[in-house]
Design a protein that fits this description.
Blueprint (H helix, E strand, L loop, with lengths): L2 H14 L2 H8 L3 H15 L4 E3 L4 E3 L1 H28 L4 E7 L6 H13 L3 E7 L13 E6 L9 E16 H7 L13 E4 L4 E6 L2 E6 L2 E5 L2 H9 L5 E4 L6 H4 L2 E4 L6 E10 L6 H14 L23 H17 L9
Amino acid sequence: MDTLTSIKAFRQVVESGSFVAAAERLDMSTAMVSKHVVHVEQRLGARLLNRNSRTLSLTEPGRVYFERCKTVLDDLQATELELGSLVSAPRGTLRISAPSVAACHRLAGLLAQYRDRHPEVLVDVSFEDRFVDLVDEGYDLALRIASNPDHLPPDQIARPIRATTFYLAASREYVKRRGAPKSPEELAQHDCVAVGNLNSWRLSSPNGKIEIPLRVVMRYRSMQGAANAIAAGIGIAPVPGILFEDPPFKDVLIPILPEYPLQQATLHIVYVSRKFVPPKIRTFVDFMVESLSSVAESKPLHRQTKYTRVVRMQTAAEGRVLAAEVAQRSFQHPEAVPASG
């Protein structure tokens, strides 16, 4: 049995607090982790852990050994990273945590470009709307959207990449059926899809922030889930501006009250502060900054909301007036009239 692997297993058990959690982090069976710890104890001739069905604690020799082996393993990792950054090309698995809304065509295209540059790197992406612990959960870096940098971990490096503004959106089918609100106050008459436990939205206006109470008809625990819900015609919800250009949503979603955005946040790339950053992390960070920092933020077109007037005809006379308005708008701005249907 490999002694170095056994030492790493022992350290992970102590830091994780259980054999089961350590097995998950090390991608081993619980029985194998236990064998590695026993191997270390037999090699040293000392009991390192007190075990029972409920708790796990270090013995006195175990505390001394844990501190020493932790230092040795950290020094070994630092040496490998230092040498690797000097002589090796990026390789290995790059574990990334990203918000669910990032699971879009744009990010897929960027990852494909990165892989073309660095084919020896295997990108492993998890999409989840929470701030993961990069160290404890074994991630190399994270993409995070934050309106305030103070919300990001202070002990980690957070590089801003680009601004991201959230806008209200609904499907064309919903607008045909229910019409579109013409003012923030009219949102109270519409079905809303909330993310998490929100019961109101704070909209930005020329006069400051406006707090709008919601009539919530459905809740989602992920932004991507909410986007799919409004695409299905359930109601109105906020989405990042880039989603209006994503192929699955481009011809489905339209902005609602785009002159009243919810908030402006910033996309950050977050990673642990290290003296020597592994090539796979360094090259990915540089690639993302290069690819996105110079890209202007996409903004939904205000004229799209005029589409909603077509679906609010109730009389023939109203229809004739509206037809004349559409014809005039088409003559003045041909690109402003959306296709019907």
